Each structure stands twice: as structure tokens, then as C-alpha cells.
Amino acid sequence: MKCTRCARTANVEIRRSRQAYCAACYPDWFRAQVQERIDHDRMLRHDDKVLVAVSGGKDSLALWHALVRLGYQADGMYLRLGIGGYSQRSQEKAEAFARSEGLRLHQVDLKAEYGYTVPDLLETRSGKPCSACGAVKRYQFNRVASDLGYSVVATGHNLDDEAATLFGNVVHWQTDYLGRQGPVLESTHPKLVRKVKPLYRLGERETAAYALVQGIDYILEECPMAVGAKSLIYKEMLNALEESQPGAKHQFLVGFLKKGRASVQVGSFDQATQLKECVRCGQPTTSLVCTHCKMADRGREKAAARAAAVDGSRD
Ligand code: SF4
Ligand code: ZN
């Protein structure tokens, strides 16, 4: 297989577009794809102050790396979720990347600043904290961006993530979630910062290849809470489909964004126009007290109950 650009031996194959690139040409192709999406979906301007949500994984670090190389003013933010050794190791990757690139990384520590960790948010039904964790991330990235004057939050969601989310929302007919699925979420309140997903048309393999070729050291292990998560099952199904029909994931997502989304009613929080400010934290909400403040109360209660049980067993 030859490189589409220089005809040397190719290292990365892009099956859906029948292209292949060598390690020297691949990063330029990847960044050109990111830039093309940014321009096409009017995601960013060069005078935007961008806050990249950084997890220490390949997608967020590849995104941060690419945005900086493309000339955007992009700082990072890492959220300490308190998921044991996994959080520790991913934090180290995020910090090491920021240090080696000379970039600014903000951090928020849920335990130290809010008195709970993500494992304190386990849900009784699923036994997982993932949907609560997602809400915490949205809240914290938005809060920090808004407080520090960033104009956009960029996340590393890739094609596989977006197709799996779409699949899950279709399976359960979550119409309000379907309505807000897209590469750009506009701000509907002065304290609600725009959100963009510049990697949404690039596959997981493609961002992993970019990280590898660029020598980005990222955390390889999955979050232990992800084991058995529905999103992983959806990804496996879509991978099986992609194997027999290259381009299927892309068609599924892009087809929805072009033809399906407009017909879905938009009723979600992010796009609500009647937002107030939470009486406790001042962040945008549709109710008196925001979801995050209520969730943090429950998390603190669980953390206190656990600490009391540990003390009790010592007596
Ligand atoms: Fe949070 Fe679940 Fe992702 Fe872990 S797998 S980081 S708990 S959303
Ligand atoms: Zn609040």
C-alpha cells in the first residue's frame, strides 16, 4: 500500500475513503481534516480562547496537540474524578503532555473542592456512575470556561463516540438527546459557553494513529467504570458493521446530522432558552437548584456514610 500523497510505503489506511498515508504525511492529513471541520461547521475563530477538556486519553490529547499546531489559543483542563489509580495515571499523562508542550493546564479536584468523587455517584439501577459523571464534566468544564473567560469548550469526541451515542439514543428514542447531538452546541445563556467537537468525523483508529505518530503519551487503559457500559456494546456492534461495510459509521452519523436532526424536537437543557441561575452556585439551570448541586449533595452524603462505615469497622 502506497501513501496517497508521496507514494512511499503507507502506515495508516483510511478504509472509508480508500486512502493511505505514511507516518510523515499522516499528521498533515489529520490536521487538515480537523481544520476542514472547524471551518465547515464554523466551530472556532483564531481569536477564540479555547478550553480543551483533557482526560489524558488519546482523543483529548490529540485534539489539544492538533489545535495548537493549527494556531489556536488552546489551554487544557483536567478534572480529577477520584477514580482510584486510573485517575492518578490519567492525571499524570495530562500533566506530562502539558509540561512537554509548554501548555497551560487547569485542574479541578472533586474530592478536595466539592467533598465527593465520581464513585460516590453510583446509580442504584445500573451500578455505574457514568451518566452522573457526564453531567459533572459538562458542569465543571462549562463553569471553569465561563469563570476564566474562555469563549469555547472543545472536547475530543470522535466518530466512534458520536455514532455510539446516536445509536443509543435511537435505540431508546431519546428524542431530546437526539435534538442536541451535533458538533456545535451554541450558547443560550451568558454563562453557558459554546461547545465544539472538532474530531467528530475522525475515527478512533485515526486519532490513535495521530497520537502514535506524534509521540503523544496517553493513557491506554479504559476507565474501570466503563466495563459493561452500553456505549462499549454499541461501539462493538458498529465496529462489526464497519468491518463489512467501510464507511457505515460515517454514513449513520452524517446522515442523521444532515437529514434527521432537523426533524427532532430540541428540548434539552443545553438548548433551552429559559435558563435561570442556580440559587446556590450561580450556574445556568432550568430549576431553582442545579442538577450538579443536588448531585454533589448526594455524593457527599455517600462519601460521609462510607467514611462512617470504615470508622465503625475499626471500633
Ligand atoms: Fe466517567 Fe463513566 Fe467515563 Fe469513567 S467511564 S470517566 S465514570 S463517564
Ligand atoms: Zn448549582
Task: Please provide a written account of the structure.
It is a single chain. This protein has about 325 residues and is of the alpha/beta class. The chain contains eleven helices and ten strands. The protein starts with 11 loop residues before the first strand and ends with a helix. The chain binds iron/sulfur cluster (SF4) and zinc ion. The site of zinc ion (ZN) has 8 residues, from helix 11.
The termini sit apart by: 68 Å
Supply the helix-strand structural class.
alpha/beta
Bound molecules: iron/sulfur cluster, zinc ion
Helix fraction, binned, reads: 40-55%
Topology order in helix (H) and strand (E) letters: EEHEHEHEHHEHHEEHHHEEH
- Number of separate strands: 10
Assign the CATH class: Alpha Beta
Number of domains: 1
Please state the second-level CATH architecture.
3-Layer(aba) Sandwich
| Overall pLDDT metric | 93
Q: Note the total helix count.
A: 11
Flag low-confidence runs: none
- CATH fold topology: Rossmann fold
Computed CA radius of gyration, to the nearest angstrom = 20 Å
Overall shape: it is globular
| The CATH fourth-level homologous superfamily | HUPs
What proportion strand? 5-15%
Strand order across the largest sheet: 5-4-3-6-8-7
The largest sheet is:
6 strands, mixed
